[in-house]
């Protein structure tokens, strides 16, 4: 009788998901910690919503309004209701605010960070699961709250390690474009979204590509065709003229003055007035002209924005080892979304917010060498030279941890040589060695692994090597102080 074959699943990750290594996790934690500290200082309160929401709570407020319930990972609850993993952190906030609206202190200022999931085609740097970090103000109408979000974004960028010359925040008001669409008689939702999506691709496709998307449509390099907004020649010229005028630049006051001259009595008038107030507040807060600029071509792709919008773009360009530039573009964005809570309550509730993708932003900061605090504390490995003395080794590790160091007693198998190789592979700063001889004399040997690595690179003379104190002996009672002294000397 043939022996039944044992089934062994293949070890593989689902497409679009990633395993994050220790250095990546530490970098992301450092970034979230820096941003959270800013939010706390500005009076925002933390909130955590569940990973799952009912699918109808996400509804049409997914990026593609044509696919209202696609783009999410969904399952049916035991009562037959469809639930979906949250697509972002804003829709859950809207549900939370609507559910407890009467009891919320308004305006409600919250920040949140956590995983989000998107059932989209994965690609380079595009994952189906990632971390977002948001701050929102629910219940505050008027441009003052929007100006605060822009200033808040600037402080988060600085807290993350960027200099003012490393980034720029581009600000617009969606009502400016609504005014253009009004003048074209193109305010229906489908055409409006197609026009907005076309404009949103200006930086990537240029004027020629945008014009195709404003007309019949565009075929990309792969042969895929994107249906256009269907504007006639005059309509396309009107939109392209607006974009060209918006790129003329100037100070914030100069941009608003130019826009005011062409706004007329359309919806754009309210947008211009909002930008004027935002400029006054940003100026009062000391936000430089070159740090926050008014750029009427900024659209933001999500359909729920109703007023001021902004994007934070990296100006500093990190490079790959071969010298080629890394393209990060916009790393954070935000805007006003006054209609989101109304889906649940039927009552318009003003809201504005700011969000960034933690993984993407942390990768950009790491590439620039600007992510402070991402390195782990120095690690000390206590070598288990005598397995019969494990209690003593654990006691040493505990003392080191009590002093604020990372420390572990080696619990695996292997002789001292293998244990020191383990310490090297763990990138440990020190190894502590205490064998029979050291126990008898009341001492420990400390091996400075970082110094050893430096010496290996710079010293070729054996006698000079011997003169260096890479390994030294101290009384057992001075184990902790000796390591701390070495670390202090390194700064």
From TrEMBL:
It is an enzyme of class 6 (ligase). It is found in: Cytoplasm. Gene3D superfamilies: Anticodon-binding domain (3.40.50.800), Bira Bifunctional Protein, Domain 2 (3.30.930.10). L-histidine binds at residues 88-90, 118, 132, 136, 300, 304-305. It comes from the Bacteria. Its EC number is 6.1.1.21. GO terms for biological process: histidyl-tRNA aminoacylation. One of its GO terms (molecular function) is ATP binding. The keyword Transmembrane does not apply. InterPro entries: aa-tRNA-synth_II (IPR006195), aa-tRNA-synth_II/BPL/LPL (IPR045864), Anticodon-bd (IPR004154), Anticodon-bd_dom_sf (IPR036621), His-tRNA-ligase (IPR015807), HisRS-like_core (IPR041715), HisRS/HisZ (IPR004516), HisRS_anticodon (IPR033656). Keywords: Aminoacyl-tRNA synthetase, ATP-binding, Cytoplasm, Ligase, Nucleotide-binding, Protein biosynthesis. Homodimer. Belongs to the class-II aminoacyl-tRNA synthetase family. PANTHER family: HISTIDINE--TRNA LIGASE, HISTIDYL-TRNA SYNTHETASE. NCBIfam families: hisS. This is Histidine--tRNA ligase. It comes from Glycocaulis alkaliphilus.
């Amino acid at each position: 009788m043939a022996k039944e074959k044992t089934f062994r699943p293949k070890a593989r990750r689902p497409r679009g998901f990633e395993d994050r290594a220790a250095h990546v996790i530490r970098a992301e934690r450092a970034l979230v910690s820096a941003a959270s500290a800013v939010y706390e200082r500005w009076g925002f309160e933390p909130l955590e919503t569940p990973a799952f929401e009912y699918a109808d709570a996400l509804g049409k407020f997914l990026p593609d309004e044509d696919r209202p319930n696609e783009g999410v990972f969904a399952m049916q609850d035991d009562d037959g209701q469809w639930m979906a993993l949250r697509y972002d952190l804003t829709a859950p906030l809207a549900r939370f605010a609507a559910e407890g609206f009467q009891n919320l202190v308004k305006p409600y200022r919250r920040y949140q960070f956590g995983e989000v999931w998107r059932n989209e085609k994965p690609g380079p740097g595009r994952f189906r699961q990632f971390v977002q970090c948001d701050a929102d103000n629910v219940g505050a109408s008027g441009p003052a709250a929007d100006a605060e979000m822009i200033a808040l974004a600037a402080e988060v960028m600085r807290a993350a390690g960027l200099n003012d010359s490393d980034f720029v925040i581009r600000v617009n008001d969606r009502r400016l474009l609504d005014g253009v669409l009004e003048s074209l008689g193109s305010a229906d939702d489908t055409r409006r979204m197609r026009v907005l999506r076309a404009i949103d691709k200006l930086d990537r496709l240029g004027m020629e590509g945008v014009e195709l998307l404003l007309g019949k449509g565009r075929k990309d390099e792969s042969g895929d065709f994107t249906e256009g907004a269907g504007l006639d020649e005059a309509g396309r010229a009107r939109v392209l003229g607006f974009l060209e005028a918006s790129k003329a630049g100037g100070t914030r006051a100069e941009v608003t003055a130019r826009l005011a001259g062409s706004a007329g009595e359309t919806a754009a008038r309210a947008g211009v007035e909002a930008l004027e107030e935002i400029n006054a507040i940003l100026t009062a807060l000391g936000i430089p002209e070159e740090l926050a600029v008014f750029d009427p071509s900024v659209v933001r792709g999500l359909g729920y924005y109703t007023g001021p919008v902004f994007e934070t773009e990296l100006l500093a360009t990190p490079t790959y080892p071969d010298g080629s530039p890394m393209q990060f573009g916009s790393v954070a964005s935000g805007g006003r979304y006054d209609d989101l809570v109304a889906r649940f309550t039927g009552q318009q509730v003003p809201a504005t917010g700011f969000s960034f993708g933690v993984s993407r932003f942390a990768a950009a900061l790491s590439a620039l060498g600007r992510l402070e605090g991402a390195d782990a504390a120095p690690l000390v490995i206590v070598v288990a030279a005598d397995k019969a003395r494990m209690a003593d080794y654990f006691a040493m590790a505990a003392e080191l941890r009590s002093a604020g160091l990372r420390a572990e007693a080696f619990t695996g198998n292997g002789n001292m040589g293998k244990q020191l190789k383990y310490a090297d592979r763990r990138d440990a700063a020190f190894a502590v060695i205490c064998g029979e001889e050291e126990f008898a004399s009341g001492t420990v040997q400390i091996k400075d692994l970082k110094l050893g690595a430096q010496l290996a690179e710079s010293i070729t003379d054996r006698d000079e090597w011997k003169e260096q104190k890479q390994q030294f002996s101290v009384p057992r009672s001075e184990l902790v102080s000796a390591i701390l002294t070495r670390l202090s000397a390194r700064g």
